[in-house]
Design brief:
By secondary structure, the protein is mainly beta. The chain is built from no helices and nine strands. Strands 4-3-1-2-5-8 form a six-stranded mixed beta sheet, with no helix packed on it.
Length: 99
């Protein structure tokens, strides 16, 4: 296990956020990641189900089809499929509000 002083694997801006953003390279399926919730200054651990590219999002909790998805405390879109905790969240299961 990592020391808490090591840099986080993912960032979460707001405790209400449904997704975290990976800030390291080479995240593999089944890997346990350590993340930092910035507004609360807390760390959390989540095991990812897929390889997650740098800068991509994954679900911090289960998200149901049709649910709004929060990132940075803002609604970034809605799920177009059920998304399990640790799943990669991207264009295949998220329709952004902008389009």
């Amino acid at each position: 296990s990592k020391l808490s002083s090591s840099p986080p694997d993912f960032l979460v801006h707001d405790e209400k956020d449904a997704v975290g953003v990976v800030v390291v390279e080479n995240v593999d399926a089944g890997q346990s990641l350590s993340g930092w919730i910035m507004d609360a200054d807390k760390t959390i651990d989540v095991t990812v189900n897929h390889a997650i590219p740098l800068g991509h999002k994954f679900a911090l909790r289960a998200i149901s089809n049709g649910d709004s998805v929060l990132k940075y405390g803002e609604n970034i879109g809605h799920a177009v499929a059920d998304i399990a905790t640790g799943d990669h969240v991207h264009v295949h299961n998220l329709k952004t509000s902008k389009w």
